[in-house]
Design a protein that fits this description.
By secondary structure, the chain is mainly beta. The chain contains 2 helices and 8 strands. It has one domain. The radius of gyration is 16 Å and the shape is globular. The two termini are about 30 Å apart.
Length: about 150
């Protein structure tokens, strides 16, 4: 039993990034995902860690933040072929709904673009790319337990 406030847990939503280049998996934690913005951390297969922030464009933003998030999304998503890798083509107007940017402090940067997040912010999907050119599919949320 926990008697002190320090024992309380911080809500973390798990996410997994599945490499499209090899079978490697990156585990990500989105802190306070239900509110729509916050810190994120990731653990690479070799044990190295990345940290950064995320934001979801719909609801849960502090006043005035929604427009800034949408501007950031448009800038980041247009830099690469995120929508094509996600499965959209040029004739479909794919609109990202969130993003995360994480770094290891030694030169590796990972950009996550979310294309789908459910209204309860428990699950979502998207695409990620690191600055070394590797692509990942994103699944946010717990896996179903059999």
């Amino acid at each position: 039993m926990c008697l002190f406030a320090a024992c309380s847990t911080i809500p973390k939503t798990p996410a997994r990034l599945y490499s499209l280049d090899n079978a490697k998996l990156i585990h990500v934690k989105l802190f306070y995902f239900g509110r729509g913005y916050g810190k994120a951390s990731a653990t690479l297969p070799g044990g190295a860690t990345l940290s950064g922030h995320y934001a979801v464009a719909s609801g849960g933003q502090p006043p005035g933040r929604r427009a800034a998030v949408m501007a950031d999304l448009d800038t980041v998503a247009r830099r690469g072929e995120f929508s094509r890798v996600y499965g959209y083509n040029r004739s479909i107007d794919s609109r990202p709904v969130g993003y995360a940017i994480l770094s290891d402090g030694a030169g590796l940067t990972l950009t996550m673009i979310l294309y789908s997040v459910d209204t309860t912010r428990e699950y979502g999907t998207g695409v990620a790319r690191d600055n070394r050119g590797r692509w990942y599919r994103i699944h946010i949320g717990d896996l179903e337990k059999d």
